[in-house]
C-alpha cells in the first residue's frame, strides 16, 4: 500500500490552505489508454485527481519542505527526474541529474513517438539548485502526453516515457492554479539565473516571516523578473514510486521540528586516571564521567541556506565560525549522512570555557543530536557517539545516559547506571584563568600518575560505598597545578574549609574547575576574600537522560523532561522569547517551505 501522506497545499505565504491527505495510491489507481498518437497506456493516479478535486481545479499546488534535505531518497529522485531551465530567447541551460537525465538530453526526436511533440513549453525544471524549494507542482492526470500544452519536447524522452509504458508527466507550475500572488520563490518567471540570484531570493524567503514582508518580497521578485517567462516541469517516470516517495517524505517529515531548543549539559570527571601515552600523542584514560545539570541552551532552526550554518552566541570569546564545535558537529553530521540541511544556531552560554567541564564538547554532542532530530533520524545514537570522537575526546560520553566509565582517548564509553543520587549537590568553583587541555597533557608524565589507584577498583568502590575523597583521583591535577599553582591552593582550602560538608573535592578534567560534592554552597571564604571575587561559582546536580531523549535539567518540569519538542515549546514560552516557533511548530501561517530530502547542485 502506498504510504499515506499529509501534505499541505498552498500557493501563498500569507494564506495557507489546509492540509490535504493524499490517500493510498496503489489501491485506487487505474490505467487507461492514452489518447495520443502512440496509443500507449497511461497510469492515472487517483490521489492526484483527488487532490485536484479537493479544490475543484485541474491543478493543485504542493510545496513542501523537508528538514533533512539530502537524505537517502535523493539518489532515486536524481535518477527519476530530468530537468533544466530554458530561458526563452537567451539560449538554454540544461541540467540533468543522474544517468537517465544525461541520456535523455540529446534524445529529442523520440518525442514524436509518444506524441509529446505537441507538448509545448519554453522551459522546464525541477528545482535545480534552488536553495529553498524542490518542487512546486501542478498535477495533471490527463495522460502521458501531459498537460494540454505543447512542447518542443527536448529532454522528455526516455524509453520509460514512451506512451506504451506506465509513465507519468508531472507538471510543475510555478504559480499554482494560475494565481498571481504566490510565493516569490516559486513563481513562474523567476528561474534562478545564478546562485547569487538564488541566494538573494532565499534571503527574501527567510526574511518573509510575516504576510506583509512576504507580500513585499513577492512584489520585489515580480518586479525583478517578468512573469511567465519560465515554467517548471518535472517528469516522473514511475508515478507510483514517485507518489510513494513523496508520501513517505511527507509522512516522515511532517512531524519533524523546524526549530529545536535543547539543553546542552557539561560533565565532571569523578576520577581520571591516565594510563598511557600513545604513539599518536594522545593519552589513554580510565575515567568515571558524569554529566551534570550545569549547561547551555542551544536553539537550532532550519536555515534556507545551502552553504553555511549561522551561529550566534550570548558570550564573546568563543569562535562562531568553523572552529566552533557546534559548527564542526553539524558539518560532520552532513558529511556522514549526506544531509544538506543547514542551521541557524543560537548558543546561550552558561558553562565556562577552559574549565575541564567539556562545555564545548557537550555543545558538539547536542548539535549532533539536534541535527539528527531535525533531519529525520538518519543516524543511530551509536553512530553519533562514534562520530563525536572525531570532534573531540570528550564528545562521545554525552551519548551515554549520563554516567559512563570511559577508556581509550575517550571513545570507549561504557554506559553505566549512575552510582549517585541525582539529588547529590555539587558546587563548582572556577577561577577566571583557563587550563588549556593540550598544555596540561603536554606537561603530564607518567611519574605523576597515581599508580596505586586501579581505575576499575575505584569504580567498584564508588559503586559500593559512594563518593569519598580517596576515590576522586585526577592524574591531571599535578600538571594543571604546575600551570596554575593558585588552583592547588584553592582545592586545598575548599577541602579544609568544607571538611564535614563535602564528601570529596577534586579537579574536573584538565581544570580549572574544582568540584566539591555534598553541599550546594561554597565555603564562606569564597565570598569573603577579595582574591576570589572573580571566581565562577555554580551549584549543580548529577544528571542522567532517558532512553531516546536528550538531557533536560532536573526541576524544569515535564517540559524539558518529557522530550525535545516539549522542552523546546517550554523554552519558547519564556518571556524573552524571540518569536520564533518551537519544535513541531507547523502552525497556520507558517512559511510552508517543505524541502524534499535532497537538493540539486548546479
Ligand atoms: C581532559 C579531558 O577533558 C578529560 O575528560 C579530556 O581528555 C580532554 O578532551 P577534549 O577537551 O575533548 O580534548 P581534545 O580536543 O580531544 O584534545 C585536545 C588535546 O588534548 C590532548 N589530549 C586529549 C585527550 C587525550 N585523551 N589525550 C590527550 O593527550 C591532545 O594534545 C589534544 O590535542
Ligand atoms: N561551542 C563551544 N563552546 C565553548 N568553547 C568552544 C566551542 N567551540 C569551540 N570552542 C573553543 O574550545 C575551547 C575549549 O572549550 P571547552 O568549553 O570545551 O573547554 P573545556 O571545558 O576545557 O573542555 P574539555 O573539558 O573538553 O577540555 C574554548 O577555549 C573555545 O575557544
Write the topology of this structure.
Layout: E1 5-8, E2 19-22, H1 25-28, E3 30-33, E4 41-44, H2 46-54, E5 61-63, H3 73-80, E6 82-86, E7 92-96, H4 98-105, H5 111-114, E8 136-138, E9 168-172, H6 195-207, H7 211-224, E10 232-236, H8 239-253, E11 259-277, E12 283-303, E13 310-313, H9 325-337, E14 342-348, H10 359-374, H11 381-391, E15 403-408, E16 412-415, E17 425-430, H12 437-443, H13 455-465, H14 477-483, H15 485-497, E18 504-507, E19 514-517, H16 525-528, E20 536-541, H17 557-561, H18 564-572
Helix pairs in contact: 3-4, 6-7, 9-10, 9-11, 10-11, 12-14, 14-15
This protein binds 4-diphosphocytidyl-2-C-methyl-D-erythritol and adenosine-5'-triphosphate.
Residues 269, 272, 281-283, 285, 287, 356, 358, 361, 392-394, 409-410, 437-438, 441, 509-510 line the site of 4-diphosphocytidyl-2-C-methyl-D-erythritol (CDM).
Task: Write a brief caption for the model.
With 602 residues, this protein is of the alpha+beta class. It is 28% helix and 20% strand.
How is this structure best described in words?
The chain is an alpha+beta fold. The protein has 2 domains: 5-253, no CATH class; 259-541, Ribosomal Protein S5, domain 2 (2-Layer Sandwich). Helices cover 28% and strands 20% of the residues. The protein has 18 helices and 20 strands. It has helices spanning 25-28, 46-54, 73-80, 98-105, 111-114, 195-207, 211-224, 239-253, 325-337, 359-374, 381-391, 437-443, 455-465, 477-483, 485-497, 525-528, 557-561, 564-572, and strands at 5-8, 19-22, 30-33, 41-44, 61-63, 82-86, 92-96, 136-138, 168-172, 232-236, 259-277, 283-303, 310-313, 342-348, 403-408, 412-415, 425-430, 504-507, 514-517, 536-541. Strands 11, 12, 13, 14, 15 and 16 form a 6-stranded mixed β-sheet that branches. Strands 18-19-17-20 form a 4-stranded antiparallel β-sheet, with helices on one face. Helix 9 links the parallel strand 13 and strand 14. Helix 3 packs parallel to helix 4, helix 12 (437-443) crosses helix 14 (477-483) and helix 14 (477-483) packs across helix 15 (485-497). The longest helix is centred in the middle third of the chain and has 16 residues, at 359-374. Adenosine-5'-triphosphate binds at residues 318-319, 323-326, 353-361, 363, 394, 437, 509-510. 4-diphosphocytidyl-2-C-methyl-D-erythritol binds next to strand 11, strand 12 and helix 12.
Amino acid at each position: 500500500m502506498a504510504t499515506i501522506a499529509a501534505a499541505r497545499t498552498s500557493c501563498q505565504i500569507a494564506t495557507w490552505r489546509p492540509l490535504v491527505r493524499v490517500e493510498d495510491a496503489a489501491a485506487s489507481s487505474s490505467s487507461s489508454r492514452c489518447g495520443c498518437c502512440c496509443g500507449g497506456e497511461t497510469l492515472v493516479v487517483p490521489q492526484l485527481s483527488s487532490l485536484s478535486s479537493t479544490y475543484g481545479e485541474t491543478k493543485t499546488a504542493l510545496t513542501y519542505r523537508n528538514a533533512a534535505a539530502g537524505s537517502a531518497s535523493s539518489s532515486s529522485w536524481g535518477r527519476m527526474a530530468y530537468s533544466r531551465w530554458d530561458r526563452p530567447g537567451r539560449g538554454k541551460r540544461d541540467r540533468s541529474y543522474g544517468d537517465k537525465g544525461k541520456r535523455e538530453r540529446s534524445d529529442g526526436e523520440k518525442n514524436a513517438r509518444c506524441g509529446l511533440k505537441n507538448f509545448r513549453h519554453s522551459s522546464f525544471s525541477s528545482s535545480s539548485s534552488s536553495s529553498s524549494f524542490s518542487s512546486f507542482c501542478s498535477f495533471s492526470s490527463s495522460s502521458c502526453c501531459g498537460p494540454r500544452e505543447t512542447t518542443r519536447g527536448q529532454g522528455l524522452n526516455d524509453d520509460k516515457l514512451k506512451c506504451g509504458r506506465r509513465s507519468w508527466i508531472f507538471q510543475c507550475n510555478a504559480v499554482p492554479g494560475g494565481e498571481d500572488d504566490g510565493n516569490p520563490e516559486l513563481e513562474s518567471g523567476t528561474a534562478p539565473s545564478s546562485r547569487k540570484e538564488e541566494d538573494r531570493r532565499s534571503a527574501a524567503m527567510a526574511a518573509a516571516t510575516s504576510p506583509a514582508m512576504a507580500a513585499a518580497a513577492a512584489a520585489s521578485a515580480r518586479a525583478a523578473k517578468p512573469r511567465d517567462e519560465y515554467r517548471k516541469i518535472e517528469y516522473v517516470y514511475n508515478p507510483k514510486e514517485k507518489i510513494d516517495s513523496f508520501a513517505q517524505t511527507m509522512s516522515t517529515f511532517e512531524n519533524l521540528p523546524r526549530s529545536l531548543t535543547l539543553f546542552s549539559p557539561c560533565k565532571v570527571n569523578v576520577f581520571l586516571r591516565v594510563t598511557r601515552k600513545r604513539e599518536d600523542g594522545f593519552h589513554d584514560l580510565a575515567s568515571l564521567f558524569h554529566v551534570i545539570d550545569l549547561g547551555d541552551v542551544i536553539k537550532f532552526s532550519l536555515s534556507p541556506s545551502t552553504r553555511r550554518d549561522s551561529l550566534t552566541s550570548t558570550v564573546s570569546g568563543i569562535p562562531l565560525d568553523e572552529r566552533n564545535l557546534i559548527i564542526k558537529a553539524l558539518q560532520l553530521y552532513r558529511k556522514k549522512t549526506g544531509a544538506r540541511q543547514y542551521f541557524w544556531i543560537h548558543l546561550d552560554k552558561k558553562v565556562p570555557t577552559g574549565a575541564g567541564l567539556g562545555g564545548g564538547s557537550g555543545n558538539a554532542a547536542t548539535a549532533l543530536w539536534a541535527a539528527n532530530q531535525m533531519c529525520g533520524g538518519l543516524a543511530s545514537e551509536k553512530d553519533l557517539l562514534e562520530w563525536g570522537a572525531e570532534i573531540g575526546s570528550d564528545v562521545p560520553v554525552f551519548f551515554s545516559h549520563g554516567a559512563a566509565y570511559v577508556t581509550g582517548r575517550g571513545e570507549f564509553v561504557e554506559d553505566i547506571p549512575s552510582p549517585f543520587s541525582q539529588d547529590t549537590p555539587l558546587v563548582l568553583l572556577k577561577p577566571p584563568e583557563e587550563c588549556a587541555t593540550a598544555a596540561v597533557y603536554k606537561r603530564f608524565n607518567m611519574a605523576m600518575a597515581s599508580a596505586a589507584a586501579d581505575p576499575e577498583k575505584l569504580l567498584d568502590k564508588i559503586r559500593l560505598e559512594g563518593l569519598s575523597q580517596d576515590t576522586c583521583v585526577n592524574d591531571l591535577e599535578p600538571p594543571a597545578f604546575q600551570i596554575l599553582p593558585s588552583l592547588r591552593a584553592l582545592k586545598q582550602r575548599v577541602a579544609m574549609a568544607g571538611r564535614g560538608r563535602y564528601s570529596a573535592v577534586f579537579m574536573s578534567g584538565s581544570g580549572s574547575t574544582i568540584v566539591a560534592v555534598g553541599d550546594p554552597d561554597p565555603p564562606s571564604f569564597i565570598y569573603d576574600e577579595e582574591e576570589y571575587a572573580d571566581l565562577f561559582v555554580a551549584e549543580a546536580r548529577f544528571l542522567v537522560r532517558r532512553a531516546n531523549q536528550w538531557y533536560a535539567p532536573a526541576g524544569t518540569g515535564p517540559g524539558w523532561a518529557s522530550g525535545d519538542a516539549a522542552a523546546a515549546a517550554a523554552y519558547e514560552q519564556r518571556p524573552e522569547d524571540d518569536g520564533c516557533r518551537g519544535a513541531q511548530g507547523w502552525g497556520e501561517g507558517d512559511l510552508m517551505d517543505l524541502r524534499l530530502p535532497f537538493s540539486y547542485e548546479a
